[in-house]
Amino acid sequence: MRAKLYPLQKPYNSGLLKVSKLHALYYEEVGKPRGNPVIFLHGGPGVGIHPDYRRFFDPKFYRTILLDQRGSGKSTPFAELRENTTWHLVEDLEKLRKCLGIKHWIVTGGSWGSTLALAYARCYPESVKGIIIRGVFTARASEIEWLFSERGAGQIWPDEFEKFISILNKREKKEIIKSYYKRLNSKTGKVSREAAKAFAYWEGTIMTLIPDKKETSSFLTKERTVAIAKIECYYTLNNFFMETENGLFRNINKIKNIPLTIIQGRYDTICPMRSAYDLHKSLPGSKLIIVPNGSHSPLEPPMVKELIKAGEEFKKLW
User: Fold this and answer.
1) Is 165 contained in some domain?
2) How many CB atoms lie within 10 A of CB 101?
3) Which of 181, 209, 240 is the last residue of a domain?
4) Where are the beta strands (DSSP E) in the chain?
5) Are 104 and 150 in a shared domain?
6) CA-CA distance, 79 to 73, in Å (whole number)?
7) Do residue 185 and residue 260 come from a single domain?
8) Residues 229 and 195 sit within 8 Å (Cβ to Cβ)
9) Are residues 49 and 109 in the same domain?
10) Rounded CA separation 147/54 (Å)
């Protein structure tokens, strides 16, 4: 079984999909033009497409589609918060599917991408052939508190958490996300840039089992830093636009007959394993793969191996 990413490919097709008067979304396609379609959903929200995301599926079998979600990557307007909610993104996926003439596709994503994959599948189950997700995030308050509290990830990464909140004053530290959001939207460029860099650095640093400078630096590019921080903060303040605390689990039975593989790193400190486990329990027909030495990043070798394997196993769906 292949354990390495497939060779990097250049897109054979790309474009901008106008989804509203305000937003135009960048998308690209790699692999086999007439292959079996799979849509890759990036995380964040706000992370955008990374070239390595093109490398998880067999290019001789799959037609892989990648999309910069609203405000992310090459989509315009950059880092835009207006008309930007979970449910806007769900509708965007369906518009893209129809635009590309696809009957149904495999939906895959990690972290926020797993949230969006599940939300989309719940709304449009007939459009989904199968689901592969990793580093599961279900947008519950406990998960949000874990990531942005010294009682959660800060217990494992106290030194890095201290850096994360070091730009905040004593009063601001009582409401970390609200304070960051205010700073990110400051009219003083220095203040907003400092906040964006600190926010992205926190998540980039705890992505891997052992801190990886390459992984962290990928989060600190000018393009990614602003979008990640502003959009993710905005979504977090709005509870990711879920209807209720367990909103993602609402009507979850709608996807019970869709093949679902959940890949979860045992030592994921951004999206702890509890969420993947709860999702699996809610959908007994799903397959849960626990990666013993895996964390959050999809690019660590143990995670790559399982993601590639899942793509191979899903070939039988066609």
Assistant:
1) yes
2) 7
3) 240
4) 13-18, 24-31, 36-41, 62-67, 105-111, 128-136, 260-265, 287-291
5) no
6) 9
7) no
8) yes
9) yes
10) 28
Residue positions counted in the chain: 318
| Closest to 164 measured CA to CA, from 173, 156, 261 | 173
User: Does residue 188 lie within any of the structural domains?
Assistant: yes
C-alpha to C-alpha distance for 116 and 109, rounded to whole angstroms: 8
Cα dihedral 180, 193, 69, 208 sign: negative
What's the CA gap between 12 and 29, in Å, rounded?
6
| DSSP conformation class of 223 | H
Please indicate, yes or no, whether residues 32 and 119 belong to a single structural domain of this protein. Answer: yes
Taking a C-beta distance cutoff of 8 angstroms, is the pair 167, 155 a contact? no
- What's the structural domain count of the chain? 2
**18 — phi, psi (to 5°)?**
-80, 110
In a domain, 288, yes or no: yes
Active site residue ranges: 111, 268, 296
* Residue carrying the six token digits 């809610």: 282
**What pLDDT digit, counting tens, does each position of 79-105 carry?**
999 999 999 999 999 999 999 999 999
Q: 3-class SS at 2? A: coil
Confidence of residue 158 (pLDDT cuts 50, 70, 90): very high
Q: Are residues 130 and 262 both part of a single domain? A: yes
Q: What average pLDDT score do residues 195-220 get?
A: 82
Residue 281 makes CB contacts below 8 A (sequence gap 6+) with none
Tell me the pLDDT tens digit for each residue of 17-47: 999 999 999 999 999 999 999 999 999 999 9
Looking at 224, 240, 256, the residue that finishes a domain is 240
User: By the 8 A CB rule, do 117 and 93 touch?
Assistant: no
The reply to whether 221 and 297 lie within a common domain is no
- Band (pLDDT 50/70/90 cuts) for residue 138 is very high
